[in-house]
Amino acid sequence: MKHIIIVEDEVFMREELEEIFQKAGYLVTCITEFSQVVEEILQLTSGLVLLDLNLPGKSGFQICQELKQKCTFPILILTSRDQMKDELQALHLGADEYLTKPCRSERLLARVSNLFRRYEGRSNLLEGLGYLLDKQTYTLYIRDQSVILPQNQGKLLEAFLINRNEIITKETLCNVLWGTTEYIDENALQVNLTRLKKNMKVLGIPQKIEPVRGKGYRMEEINIL
Questions:
Q1: CA-CA-CA-CA dihedral for 212, 214, 170, 67, to nearest 10
Q2: In what order do the strands lie in the sheet with 125-127?
Q3: SS3 state of residue 213
Q4: What pLDDT sits at residue 181?
Q5: pLDDT tens across 156-172, in order?
Q6: What Cα–Cα distance (Å) separates residue 9 from each residue in 35, 54, 65, 93, 212?
Q7: Rounded to whole angstroms, how far apart are CA atoms 212 and 67?
Q8: 128 phi and psi, to 5 degrees?
Q9: In angstroms, rounded to a whole number, what is the distance separating the alpha carbons of residues 149 and 101?
Q10: Cα radius of gyration rounded to whole Å, the chain
Q11: Cβ atoms within 10 A of the Cβ of 23, count?
Q12: Residue 223: left if φ>0, alpha if ψ -120 to 50, beta else—which one?
């Protein structure tokens, strides 16, 4: 069953939307606490995010940007803000659709259905900062170009994208590459990590792999001043 995640702070509107989608056969999750919206959504395995812009705490713009940096969920903005500058900003931050309230339920359901169709072919894709990785072929798509990574580099990048912002141990990385942790060849691991880091730099990926002393490695965003 396809999943809709509603991020709307106005209770009457949220309940109305929930009823519309449940009647249309969707599984619906409503976010009702707004202090950790992104974290709550990332705990879900899949879904389409229906996102208001005027929210307590973080704005919908911030939530949209953070989600697009961390997951591949489609995002449909549904808001009372009907200014062109707001729509352009939301689309620039990665929103897939932008609708203004009030909106007929037929139009909303049609846009949602269309978004799900558009994303059906992306189940094999992992999303990084400004790029996509096909986890079947290890093809990396960035700035209108595609690059096929060597298998070991693709496996490593996939592991870092799946475990976003988390420390990955050397043992885990060795298991990713060779399917075992029994005979850890740290030098071979370093060679593969170095090659991946070099490729990421050449391609202009705004993330880097850094060692965490005594624990393993983590991929972090590059801060550009």
A1: -30
A2: 125-127, 131-134, 139-142, 145-148
A3: coil
A4: 74
A5: 999 999 887 789 999 99
A6: 12, 8, 19, 21, 39
A7: 25
A8: -105, -160
A9: 44
A10: 20
A11: 10
A12: beta
**Residue at 188: amino acid letter:** A
Encode pLDDT of 33-48 as tens digits: 999 999 999 888 789 9
Q: Report how far Cα 162 is from the mean position of its chain's Cα atoms.
A: 10
For residue 57, give Cα distances in angstroms to 38, 61, 160. 12, 11, 29
Can you tell me the distance from the alpha carbon of 215 to that of 201, in angstroms, rounded to the nearest whole number?
Answer: 24
Distance CA 63, CA 209 (A): 25
- Summarize pLDDT for 91-103 with one digit per residue, the tens: 988 899 999 999 9
Write down the pTM of the prediction: 0.62
For the chain, the farthest-separated pair of C-alpha atoms sits apart, in whole angstroms, at 62
Return the percentage of the chain with pLDDT > 90, whole number.
64
pLDDT reading at 2 higher than 80: yes
Q: What's the CA gap between 81 and 59, in Å, rounded?
A: 12
Place of tokens 């972090």: 220
Q: How far apart are CA 155 and CA 172, in angstroms?
A: 12
Please, what is the end-to-end C-alpha distance for the chain in angstroms?
A: 44
